[in-house]
Amino acid sequence: MTQPANPPAKLKPAEKMKIKRQHMPTREGGERAAGFVEVNMGLDETVAILEAQRCLDCKDAKCIQGCPVAIDIPAFVEKVAFADFAGAYEVITRTNMLPGISGRVCPQEKQCECKCIRQSGKAGGPVAIGYLERFVADWARTHLHGDGPITHAAPTGLKVAVVGSGPAGLTAAGELAKAGHAVTIFEALHEPGGVLVYGIPEFRLPKEIVKGEVNKLKTMGVTIETNVIVGQTYTIDDLLTDMGFSAIFIANGAGLPVFMNIPGENLKGVYSANEYLTRVNLMKAYQPDSDTPVLRAKNVCVIGGGNTAMDGVRTARRLGAEFGGQATLVYRRSRAEMPARVEEVIHAEEEGVKFEMLTNPIAILGDDKGWVRALKCQKMELGEPDEKGRRRPIAVPGSEFEIPCEIVIEAIGTRANPLLTATTPDLKVNEKGYIVTDENGMTSKPGVFAGGDIVRGAATVILAMGDGRKAAGAINAYLAAKSTAAA
Fold first, then answer.
1. Average pLDDT estimate for 449-456
2. Which of 58, 158, 281, 319 has an alpha carbon within 20 to 30 A of 185's alpha carbon?
């Protein structure tokens, strides 16, 4: 892509209203179901400019209010509309260090785009903010080699540790590095990226994109140490005392899987979504030359209705494609209650995934050799709303049935790993083991902040990024106050 020499003319509001929302081109469903190539293909320059021209440049830009990292959306979209792609990248990276990631996996339809004044069908639907963010990030990676005009403050001489290199940790590290601090990220796995590399499949977020965003932080001076388990290799107190860090941001996620506790979970062929996706994504088990084993089967059942369940069932569909089998998603509520992104559900359908809605697993059945042979389920109907406002599923008597399968993947949630908090007794946690913080991310331990899933429980990438940005600002204020008091 090359930047046009002559930028487009400014359109009047009436002209903008006539432009229909542009569509993201995707690879054909049958073709992509047999491989791990990225599904969405990105916008070209002409389409991106046309979509950006739909923005009405509202005086009260509610889209910014819907963005957890507070991107100046009208400003960057206007830059795209006038073909100033480098300028658009500069605007985005003022508050978002990972646009290539968030442009792909952020649920914009539930955040910035649902605030767009054009969201109604009569207005043609919201401006495709997510598509434009991805376009700008991809343009920058090609033309700016992933590095834009990111400014740094003068070195402060202070060291800040970040525990975990997922979206919250990477975001905080970038913001802290911009503020002039010496930042070190400690990552438990052998590769940085956290859930971005172990949890999200290649066909949704190529790992080269994550690597590029991580390398951008390295060029800013961020140090990343892998294979370091804080709580085992070092404790939080080690970092604060022996290693001389002035502040710490904990963003180690919530990686312990949750199981349904139904009969048969000890059978061979039962996975947690965490283990299954980690084997496939981080350990590259889908590649023929990988040393990491993963079961491939003709028929697979995935339990759950969130984005992790969608990632699991779409991955299982690909790994079982050569057998001509069936990947089935089993969810106890209806499609309307599914927390997964609408786009992911549509993509799964296009790829041949089967949906068993209003269906609750009650047992996993095995053969005489201890392998999974079927998932026993019961049909459900929706009753009154629960405490979250979703209609509660109620079992239908006498509706039990079996779904033949050789693999069952449970994707019903995760919880906090207690390793770090168990070695830091003065770090307050709640009854579920999540770290307790104030509104700025400060924990009960002075100088220690936390954010992302280890605080809020399993959530989206962009919410974790928002936590990282907010905590970085609070850490800057904390260090400034501490320096002033010491002077």
1. 97
2. 281
Contacts of residue 294, Cβ cutoff 8 Å, sequence gap at least 6? 276, 279, 280, 285, 286, 319
pLDDT digits (tens, 9 = 90+) for 76-128: 999 999 999 999 999 999 999 999 999 999 999 999 999 999 998 888 999 99
Using the 8-state DSSP alphabet, how is residue 458 labeled? Answer: S
Same domain, 261 and 385: yes
**For the chain, what percentages of helix, strand and coil (3-state, to nearest 5) are there?**
35, 20, 45
In a domain, 8, yes or no: no
The terminus-to-terminus CA distance of the chain in angstroms comes to: 52
What residues contact 189, with CB distance under 8 A and at least 6 apart? 197, 198, 226, 227, 282
| 89: amino acid identity, one letter | Y
Give the sign of the dihedral formed by CA 188, CA 193, CA 195, CA 198: negative
* 3-class state of residue 50 by DSSP: helix
- 345 and 223 in one domain? no
d(CA 301, CA 200): 19
With a threshold of 0.85, does the pTM exceed it? yes
User: Which range marks the domain in which residue 309 is found?
Assistant: 256-410
